[in-house]
Design goal:
The protein is an alpha/beta fold.
Length: 315
């Protein structure tokens, strides 16, 4: 589709606690929009407090998509996200509304903005376990060296200590006989389905970290410990699923299992969240054509974005 004929989609991204959701809601109210979440943990039902999920009141103000669409035990891939998000965007636009993608999961946003057409390569549990066993016996650096030989492009983007991604890249290579990077290159051939305009919210590091620390404390005061306790009861105990590895949940699980006291768990959550925010910023800085907005509250950020869109005569 020709670029000039592709309908615009607004993207509001940024690190955790940067004010994305409130900004997106204000813009949606002003421009008759609906929001498509780009958060890899808000997809799970019941994970509300620890993911800073938009409240029922906020969802009543503006319709949100791709929130509460999975059970805790379900697996969910980037490919699945792109499929569902694309369908949601088309639905929103078919009703004459503005689609606003809002979230902090860089892979989800990149999949949409770059138009990555992922081909699902199912996991091979037996092969994966054999690779993990090799990592335990031979050392992860040995597997990383192997990946560097068979798929240097993938190895360049993966940290030598990231066992999960190293194993997955080797799994794909052994399953298909082709490097993961080849599959990725093919997935980019189609291009994006929409024309995106991307705004990234951020704050100076000290300010952002203060916001994160306060958010974690607020989550605990709102009942994060009880939320995790109830989810464990509903699911017959924490399993080795993606949902239970979420920041805020794994630390509280450790507390409930008697491995650490609550204050240590809170400190660990804040530290892990700050580190995650740093990774998010790195991801968004590597994206092209991003409009950066710094040190503004949600109302101010919304005004700046609305003024910019008006100047560009986009909406």
């Amino acid at each position: 589709m020709a670029a000039e004929k592709r309908p615009f989609v607004l993207v509001i991204c940024g690190p955790t606690a940067s004010g994305k959701s409130s900004t997106a809601i204000e813009i949606a109210l002003q421009l008759n929009g609906e929001i498509v979440s780009a958060d890899s943990m808000q997809i799970y039902r019941g994970m509300d407090i620890g993911t800073a999920k938009v409240t029922p009141h906020e969802q009543a103000l503006v319709r949100h998509h791709l929130i509460d669409c999975c059970e805790l035990g379900e697996s969910f891939s980037v490919a699945r996200y792109k499929e569902l998000a694309t369908a949601a965007i088309r639905d929103i636009q078919s009703r004459g509304k503005l689609a606003i993608v809002c979230g902090g999961t860089g892979q989800y946003i990149q999949a949409l903005v770059q138009g990555i057409d992922y081909v699902e390569i199912p996991a091979d549990p037996e092969l994966r376990e054999s690779l993990n066993q090799r990592a335990r016996e031979e050392g992860l650096d040995r597997l990383f060296q192997e990946l560097s030989l068979v798929d240097p492009a993938a190895a360049h983007t993966i940290k030598p200590q990231d066992q999960k991604r190293i194993v997955r890249a080797l799994e794909i290579y052994h399953q298909t006989g082709r490097p993961k990077s080849d599959h990725l290159a093919e997935s980019l051939l189609k291009g994006p389905d929409f024309k995106f305009i991307v705004y990234c919210l951020t704050h100076q590091r000290a300010m952002l970290y203060d916001k994160i620390n306060q958010r974690v404390q607020t989550m605990v005061e709102q009942g994060l410990v009880e939320e995790v306790r109830q989810l464990i009861a509903l699911t017959a105990g924490p399993a080795a699923t993606t949902a239970w590895q979420a920041i805020g949940y794994k630390e509280i699980i450790a507390h409930l299992q008697g491995q650490k006291d609550l204050q240590d768990a809170i400190s660990d959550i804040a530290q892990a969240t700050r580190r995650y925010a740093k990774r998010q910023l790195t991801w968004f800085r590597n994206m092209q054509d991003v409009h950066w907005i710094q040190d503004l509250n949600p109302d101010q950020a919304a005004c700046v974005i609305l003024d910019d869109l008006k100047k560009q005569a986009i909406f």
